[in-house]
Amino acid sequence: MLEEVERWLRQRSWSAADRPLDQLLAAKRAAGTTVSVVLPALNEEATVGEIVATIRRELMSRPESEPGGAGVPLVDELVVLDSGSTDGTAKVAAEAGARVVHRDAILPRVPALPGKGEVLWRSLLVTGGDIICFVDADLREFRARFVSGIVGPLLTDPDVHFVKAMYDRPLAGGAAGAGAAGQGGRVTELVARPLLNLHWPLLAGFVQPLGGEYAARRSLLERLPFPVGYGVELGLLVDALHTVGLDALAQVDVGVRLHRHQDDQALGRMAAAIYRTAQLRLARGHLVRPRLTQFDRGEEGGFVPRTAAVDTEERPPMTEVPEYTTRHAA
After folding, report:
1. Residue 179: its pLDDT value, please?
2. How far is CA 249 from each of CA 14, 60, 189, 215, 325, rounded to the nearest angstrom?
3. Residue 151: alpha-carbon gap to chain centroid
4. What's the confidence (pLDDT) of residue 233?
5. Exposed/middle/buried for 221, CB within 10 Å: 0-12, 13-18, 19+?
6. pLDDT tens across 265-321, in order?
7. Burial class (CB in 10 A: 0-12, 13-18, 19+), 220
8. Alpha helices, DSSP H only, in the chain?
9. What pLDDT is stored for residue 241 in this prediction?
10. Contact at 8 Å (CB) between 254 and 152?
11. Tens of pLDDT along 49-84?
12. At a CB cut-off of 8 Å and minimum separation 6, what does 242 contact?
């Protein structure tokens, strides 16, 4: 097994610099492939505008009347999927040039559930690209290579179906390179990586298995179930392995990822959801709906329990949704 992982690391791990932009554009034109970028967003007005502006400026075609000319047409559509923001996220994203779609406007016959995976699943219904690239909306000092890097293998190698970004992830909040590179993925190191190594050792080579930046062919994503909450990244990675095999998966080094870090209690809820997502895939049919109890210091001393349900809901593959199949048949 170790030898197989080492072989995969040699053959399916790249740097964003390995595929220059002109090579990607040539491959895109030759194949007629279209690319959609989706930013799931919840109260990200401080960062979403710059991400959208960078993608539009460096990776999208623009009218020649706009400053900078026609741009580079790597990305065909850019969608910010708002999952219920109460700040100015939608306004900022639209002003920066994204198409903004509210989660509740998609597939209204199915009431929306809270969670990141829910909006990623619904995004398949409002995008048209052959390749779909997901980017978290809380990134700071965003660089276009986060998109071009992970889209690259899908444009140049027909055998690749799913690509994750890998990066240094400093815990410190300063400039790129500040802080310890490996300390920003606490749930990855304490929960996800042990689970993958123990139960899906073929996936042990992924540097950032829970990272929010990844791209995949629509033809794969539409066949996968989507956990609605924090477990979506682990669920998609494991299910992609079982659907298309290890050699159809890849990862690309895009540098340094800076973003807002969660507090310990949020990380606890994330860890529980990720563990539950793994458990669902290991023991389907023998399940109870779990809850997680955490503790806060009370105002009068002592500890006060706070109990929340662990995300366990999953959405079916899009090929099982009539609205989706009707649209694509048309």
Report:
1. 43
2. 12, 26, 21, 10, 26
3. 13
4. 96
5. buried
6. 888 888 999 999 999 898 765 445 567 777 676 887 776 777 877 766 889 999 999
7. middle
8. 2-12, 21-31, 48-59, 89-96, 116-123, 145-156, 186-187, 193-199, 218-221, 232-244, 264-282, 322-329
9. 96
10. no
11. 999 999 999 999 866 555 554 546 999 999 999 999
12. none
Rounded Cα distance, 48 and 140, in Å:
9
Which among 326, 235, 306 is positioned nearest to 266, based on CA atoms?
306
Structure tokens at 117: 């995976």
- Residue 240 contacts residue 220 (beta carbons within 8 Å): yes
Determine how β-strand 77-82 pairs with β-strand 139-140: unpaired
What is d(CA 47, CA 146) in angstroms, rounded to the nearest whole number? 15
Q: What is the DSSP letter of 189?
A: I
**Residue in the structure block whose two tokens are 């027909």:** 158
Question: What is the structure's pLDDT at 65?
Answer: 53
Give per-10-residue mean pLDDT for the chain (330 aa): 88 96 95 97 96 96 58 88 96 98 96 95 97 96 96 98 92 48 72 90 92 97 95 96 96 87 81 91 64 74 75 87 88
**Distant-in-sequence, close-in-space partners of 247: CB < 8 Å, separation ≥ 6:** 8, 11, 12, 159
Q: Which of 95, 131, 101 is nearest to 41 (CA)?
A: 101
The one-letter amino acid code at 82 reads D
Give one DSSP letter per residue of 48-76, joined into a string: HHHHHHHHHHHHBB--TTSTTTTB-TTBS
Domains of the chain (ranges plus CATH)? 2-329 (3.90.550.10)
